[in-house]
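Look over both lines before class:
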Amino acid sequence: MITQPIDAAAARTPALAAVAAAAVHAIPPVWPLASSVAVNPFLGQSGESLAHTAARLGRVAGIAVTMPRSWYQERIASGAITDDDLAGALSASPHARRPASLAALKAAAITAEPPPKALPTVADLAAEAAGTDWPGLIAERFGGWAAGYFDAGQALWAAPRGKSAYGAWRAVATHDLTPEIIGLTGFATQVAEGPETAGQALAAAIARLDMPAAACETYFHQLLTGLGGWAQFARYRLWQAELAGGSDTTLTDFLAIRLVWEQALYDRHEPQIADRWRAVCAAHAEPVTPTPDQIVDAILQDAADRAAQRVLADKFTQMPAARPQADRPILQAAFCIDVRSEVFRRALESTGSGIETIGFAGFFGLALSHRRFASDVDEARCPVLLNPAATSRTTDCDHHHQHAHDCGHDHSSDDAKARLTARAKRAWGRFKLAAVSSFAFVEAMGPVYAGKLLRDAFALGGHKAPQDPAPRLDPALPLVDRTAMAATILRAMSLTDGFARIVMLAGHGATTVNNPHASALQCGACGGYSGEVNARLLAGLLNDPEVRSALADQGIIIPPDTLFIGALHDTTTDAVTLYDADLPSPAHAAELEQVRGWLAAAGAITRGERALRLPRAEGVDDITRRSRDWAEVRPEWGLAGCRAFVAAPRSRTAGRDLHGTSFLHSYDWRQDDGFRVLELILTAPVVVASWISLQYYGSTVAPTVFGAGNKLLHNVTGGIGVVEGNGGLLRVGLPWQSVHDGERYMHEPLRLSVVVEAPQEAINDVLARHPDLRALFDNGWLHLFRLNEQGRIASRYVQSLQWTACDAAPMPEDSLLATA
């Protein structure tokens, strides 16, 4: 485990430092709103089973990690979960205290389980003793301070910089009289006279609380979990620092701050709470062990997963309708593996015989640090698991070449003009919001904005796809590097021959207004940004005559008449924008017109399918209006419903309706020399997809801790996240409106089923080399299946590199979908 450095005081107690580091790494990170990406909320528990995690999070947070028993019982009663599903899950359970029989399991399923209850903190015990809501006060005071400490430009008066988190908090807390007014006499003085460093404060508090070493890990985990999204944002800082080879002590400082509160409250209420506190310490010192009820719940969840897997297996046993194929496709369209693309790909393929679609990670293999036109911000347009490997920028120039250092055009003057305009807009915006001038602004300028308010209120405004000039690598890479990059990406896409006349590379983004979580609807593989930059850069790279010539020497021959085009698929409106002006080609004009017709038809089909699921959607034409409606809390469903990841040739899934629930990655193991592409797929796209799946899972089963709450109550704080109401803890995860339509769940909480067509030995070799990946499968956070030569699910991964044969008998699809 990676530990972070702490100061000398804590270093003298290495055991305590190690326990603090373990608690810190048990907290999942959360990215800021501007570039929010899905995060697995159980990231710190990937080495434990679901039942074990239930025991841990029940102790520290008082939450369940599965649905209520009634949810499973409804599916058992309807036949969606069969006795075979229950029996399979029961036999696969590794826990000795599992029910003795199928009948016992079914009896438990109809028995209401007791809700989990977290162990009390000192603040909880003090609240009971004094009748004062100390946990609520701590959340309010800490949240107000953290919002200023982390502020990313929203606050009009920013917190002082240059201090550690503990030092910055201490400077405020020594002058904050609120705790004293409420009843914690002498708190400010105690902080002022107390330890000056976080490590000393942590050690002093543990000594005063007489906390045994064995009890510290879950106690520390509990205190950090109680800080909500503030702790997770601090964990994000540590994540970024570790990714760059460094470290960050913010979250350890947060633990020390929280312990200072615990120590002060214990000092104040020791006579009333000492006996109960000793019992709590003893409970924390006990090993984390799942109860029989938690084991039953984990088995029921596994049975629900198995029911969905039968539906998926049946898809692969059905023969899809034959589609006429052209000798050479007119269009090959590469989309992100995102589940929303599955619907559009299926629709697009149905509009013509000369169309093939490809699934690939939406950043198209280009891990970029990109600077947009007239921007000073470097955006990491790549999965958060990666560090950017190249830099790119957009300049206002129509004459540049993809790898030219100097096109003869003065980029700097264009950038300077645009930057001045952008800065003027920002200054105007701050003037509108400033404490003194805001009222005068409303009085003087309010009528001028009446038209804009009316347009926004009635969703009359229009939206345009990003129309920045074409991006370029900067600095330009040598030909050998560009060629290696292009060859690696084409092989990873299993696209090394049979090129169409037009190859469209479609990134994706989302159109929505008045939505703090807008970036969560963008491309997660692009770091929470839209994907047109990566798509356009790759198109330019593959259109480069020098790169094509060098690729031919490596056996990848791209026909001279093949044109690569970057594009952007708007997943909210299902409109596709082509960036064909990046490399105008009159010779392809007729085909491009035909492609535009196909894309428009596919968009209409897709909107019709999605409109059936969106609340209050009034048909196909209403979808675009909803994207402009600033009162619309559900402009689209995002990735709700995701449940499977398939890495196989498109022929295995083409023509099969997967209902927008599957990530589809094109992969042909016969073209994968040394199975390097297989390793890349399993260690990157699969992991990213698991983060998405488990974020939806966590936001559904435990919305109070892993969900963002009600969109209608959200306020953006610090420019980084949202709170419900006017302050308190930062809320993370998905808003309730993203998983529920007001009457029923729109996301069925299932763990992702990964289906791969590749030799079993090759898959095992990858798992053996990557223990963290293998832990996800060994502990049931992901399920793994293998397709055979006939394209059917043949075997299931069990554990410890062992597999078992699957029964591929088909079942009626509607039996599960009706209950989803």
Residues 424-451 form one domain. The chain is about 45% helix and 10% strand. The radius of gyration is 28 Å. The longest strand covers residues 502-509.
